[in-house]
Design goal:
The chain has about 325 residues and is α/β, with parallel strands linked by helices. The chain folds into two domains: about 200 residues, Rossmann fold; about 100 residues, UDP-galactose 4-epimerase, domain 1 (Alpha-Beta Complex). The protein has ten helices and 14 strands. Strands 3-2-1-4-5-6-11 form a seven-stranded parallel β-sheet, with helices on both faces. Strands 12-9-14 form a three-stranded mixed β-sheet. Helix 1 links the parallel strand 1 and strand 2. The longest helix is centred in the first third of the chain and has 21 residues. The two termini are about 30 Å apart. Homodimer. It comes from Methylosinus trichosporium (strain ATCC 35070 / NCIMB 11131 / UNIQEM 75 / OB3b). This is UDP-glucose 4-epimerase. It catalyses: UDP-alpha-D-glucose = UDP-alpha-D-galactose. Pfam families: Epimerase (PF01370).
């Protein structure tokens, strides 16, 4: 049984690659290295540089490696960018995912685990938000992911493809062993950006919106540590292998922190009072979104190990320092 990990050289995908390798799984990584790095993939894990929308390449990989499961991470993920370039997001996240699904069905892949997003909920009416809440994405990014969820549901019904959709909340932190982390220089993740500001790698940190209907006026998010998220995928794979039903699950801790609370934590852990600039809202940002996670806990027995904002921030800072000393390639 071999697993194809698309986007396996990226931030979350590289942690998944490590999780699978540590578990003794046989895997192959496909990544176009547009935002990922070859050095993020262990030398003993086969990696192919290419586009997951390349039908001929993907079919060859699936057949030659006898792939029976796909864990699909490869995607564009920046909400404001999706507002400016919706067609680019629908091409990469939706149209190419349709091609990947078609190739999976045609070559007899049995299981598909999809990296979705809390952005499919839009601006929820209440928190924590459950998987059965109204789906009303407010950005092309969220819509592009929701379309893939629909395709998976239909493909499963028509072709017997078993799947798990994991709706991520805000992913943060780095591998506690220092093997991987968020390496993209221009990433927009709050904790990474704040860590860069604390280390002098950015002149300041901007806060987008201070007039939201939240306790301090800034957006509230549920921050999940990246290794906990990777382990949720392995739990999902084991669930499907054991005959479990196809499922949609939130991936979050069930509580949130505001932007200002996160900034204060980064300042405290780093010991640096870096400049913060207050700015207007960004398009596509909901005021608050926090995961209800009872389903994933019950279905997979998933239990977080790193539900600690201070520890997550410390991991992010340590990884940024490592990147300064040894830039990724």
């Amino acid at each position: 049984m071999t697993i194809l990990v698309t986007g396996g050289a990226g931030y979350i995908g590289s942690h998944m690659t490590l999780e699978l390798r540590d578990a003794g799984e046989k895997l192959v990584v496909l990544d176009d290295l547009s935002t990922g790095f070859r050095s993020a993939v262990p030398a003993d894990v086969p990696m192919i540089v290419g586009d997951f929308g390349d039908d001929e390449l993907v079919r060859d990989i699936l057949v030659y490696n006898q792939i029976d499961s796909i864990i699909h991470f490869a995607a564009k993920i920046v909400v404001p960018e999706s507002v400016a370039d919706p067609l680019g997001y629908y091409l990469n996240n939706t149209a190419k995912a349709r091609s990947l699904l078609a190739n999976a069905v045609q070559t007899g892949v049995k299981r598909f685990i999809f990296s979705s997003t809390a952005a499919v909920y839009g601006d929820p009416q209440s928190n924590p938000v459950t998987e059965d809440a109204v789906l009303a994405p407010v950005s092309p990014y969220g819509r592009s992911k929701l379309m893939v969820e629909w395709m998976l549901e239909d493909a499963s019904r028509a072709h017997g493809l078993d799947y798990v959709v994991l709706r991520y909340f805000n992913v943060a932190g780095a591998d506690p062993l220092g093997r991987s982390g968020q390496s993209t220089p221009n990433a927009t993740h709050l904790i990474k950006v704040a860590a860069q500001a604390a280390l002098g790698l950015r002149p300041k940190l901007q806060v987008f919106g201070t007039d939201y209907a939240t306790p301090d006026g800034t957006c509230v998010r549920d921050y999940i540590q990246v290794n906990d998220l990777a382990r949720a995928h392995l739990d999902a794979l084991r669930h499907l292998r054991s005959g479990g039903a196809s499922l949609v699950c939130n991936c979050g801790y069930g509580h949130g922190f505001s932007v200002l609370e996160v900034i204060e934590m980064v300042k405290r852990v780093s010991g640096v009072d870096f400049p913060v600039e207050l700015a207007g809202r960004r398009p596509g940002d909901p005021a608050a979104i926090v995961a209800a996670n009872e389903r994933i806990r019950a279905a997979f027995g998933w239990t977080p190990r790193y539900d600690d904002l201070e520890a997550i921030v410390r991991q992010a800072l340590d990884w940024e320092r490592r990147l300064v000393e040894q830039p990724p390639v």
